[in-house]
Here is the input.
Amino acid sequence: MARIGPAPVLGYLIVKENFSIPLGVFTLAGITDLLDGFIAQNWASQKSALGSALDPLANKVVISVLFISLTCANLIPVPLTSLIILKDIALIAAGFYVQYRTSPPLRTLRYFNPCYATAQLKPTFISETNTVVQLILMAVSLAAPVFNYVDSIFRPYGASQLSQ
Here is the structure.
């Protein structure tokens, strides 16, 4: 919840072209996400069904908000953001479909309770790699205006290329 809550504020700050605070909060969120994953993997008593459902949801929310905001700020191209958002929507819909198909015939509010998961979905290596690449792209795009390398050769989609 600590990552989902500030996501709209970060999006607003990015759209208003205040990149320093979002870069710092994004870095802090990344560190806390790594720490959370480390704790969940190494101490079984700290692992929960709710946490295993909220963690990927928080990642999707933060990634979606930041991609849309960075696109509004002309730092990430629209087709790339569209592709990523559509992929995430398809993955979420597939997850709900699997939950629906594997739950008992009497579908009540238990259907939405992560404690009653009827199927275990584990991320694949390609999925994890994709997330890392997306996070690196967001970090570089957030850092570009802060460190004044928006039009650098290391970042092919600078502001001048996107406005043409």
